[in-house]
Amino acid sequence: MRAVSDMHPALKIIAFGLLFSVLPFTISGLWTHAVVLAILVAMILGMRIPYSQIRMTYPALAVVVLTVVSYLAVDAGGPTVAAIPLGPWTWEIRQGSVYYATRMASRTVIWVAAYLILLATTPNRAFVAGLMALRVPRSAAIAFAMTIKFWGQVVQDTQMIVEAQRARGVDFHRGSPWRLFYVRFIATLLPIFFVMFKRFRTMSYALTLRGLGAPAVPTQFYKPAVRARDWLAFGGIVALQAACVILDRTVF
Questions:
Q1: I need a surface site. Which of 6, 102, 145, 213 has the fewest CB within 10 A?
Q2: Ranges of each domain in the chain
Q3: Phi–psi pair at 54, nearest 5 degrees
Q4: 3 state SS of 82
């Protein structure tokens, strides 16, 4: 797995950022989705990505849950799998709804796992260098890399603020729903906004000092070369994806 984690950033962006984004649309079987997800999980375990970085994907997984619920609420045909009474109404979950909800959830989890591998194993400067190697303009590459990487920073700041408020005696779990909403909003969201604004200002100063937007072409100090083992690792990933497509067409 080291050959994959140390792959050239441009090839890694193509493999995990593009090909794994398109792959779920080329396969339809749920078992094939499970195989692809198992491959990605094996890569995550083999690369020993720390749990602190895996935990940053929890908000995306919450979106997966909401997506599943929304698909289950739509009548996609088929026999009734379950009927849930909701007062004067009855929520009937159809077999077709379960299928589409499961397929969409598996697609989303595949995207999350692929982007986790890409972002957790690619430093900021390597990510920018990879985008520039793909002929993305420098300003756009820096902006895109900052946007992608900034989400993890937001999650870290949120966890830091929550732990600091708990150390001050703020209780986030007990009380009425209105009190919990008030406490979580005042004690968490407002400090996060101030921390983010301060971070935006610091980042703006840093980018200005580095000459972002200057008319002259800056010198690129970090420009990694593509090695033979990078092509081998990239070819292995493409071969695995092609095998999954063939497996979906012939077996599942």
A1: 213
A2: 2-250
A3: -65, -35
A4: strand
